[in-house]
């Protein structure tokens, strides 16, 4: 299994913490957010990872170069990270999507048991969004509307009253999933608004047109999204352990 980590952004909502480093390199325990992600993926059996970089890419490249484990890790620089959203980052590494892979936000921390569950979940549909549930959702949540276990809609603009869950920022593509996603990326990037779209808009479009997007709930498992200083300060103590 491969993985793509989207880490091109600066993380401006984390300023001043991201004044001199991208948010994926913020310290966590004895490593960084990216380091913790890579360690967990390697321990989970992922064999190859590409990290999409942008802001202060050289620092991320240095972090990756220090690794010496069995998992192959490379970087891919997105020179348009300041003017394009992460749909463009996905489009740039579409050639890497030639077999089963995970797509992960660069600010999502996840425990080993969560990853294990995602990797071992049944291959019911070719595209799978990892979800969690809580009592209420706000405008900043990547909200999900379900039709059984199928994904009916996804987006921050989805009305809270229609939300059944939220995306944690980890997707799995299997079987025809990589080809389906590549085709949608190609189609959307050929539109005037393509560069301004977020990568999950492509997932929403696939769900609406094909119904081939499923979900997998990881309720009860540890994960953290790091968007703000408050998020960073509130990172689960589990992730801060060596």
Describe this structure in words.
It is a single chain. The chain is built from eight helices and 13 strands. The protein is an alpha/beta fold. Helix 3 crosses helix 5, helix 3 crosses helix 6 and helix 5 crosses helix 6. 45% of the residues are buried.
Short structural summary:
The protein has helices at residues 33-43, 57-65, 86-92, 112-120, 177-189, 199-210, 229-233, 237-240, and strands at 2-7, 27-28, 31-32, 48-53, 72-77, 101-105, 108-110, 127-132, 143-147, 150-155, 165-173, 213-217, 223-225.
Describe the secondary-structure layout.
Layout: E1 2-7, E2 27-28, E3 31-32, H1 33-43, E4 48-53, H2 57-65, E5 72-77, H3 86-92, E6 101-105, E7 108-110, H4 112-120, E8 127-132, E9 143-147, E10 150-155, E11 165-173, H5 177-189, H6 199-210, E12 213-217, E13 223-225, H7 229-233, H8 237-240
Parallel strand pairs: 1-4, 1-6, 4-5, 8-12
Antiparallel strand pairs: 2-3, 6-11, 7-13, 8-11, 9-10, 9-11
Q: Briefly note the structural class of the backbone.
A: alpha/beta
- Percent strand equals 25-35%
The pLDDT mean sits at 94
The total beta strand count reads 13
Ranges with pLDDT <50 over ≥5 residues? none
**Count of DSSP H/I helices:** 8
Please give the largest β-sheet: 9 strands, mixed
Q: Rg to the nearest angstrom?
A: 17 Å
In whole angstroms, how far apart are the ends? Answer: 25 Å
Tell me the helix content.
25-40%
Following the backbone from N to C, one meets helices and strands in this order, namely EEEHEHEHEEHEEEEHHEEHH
Shape: globular
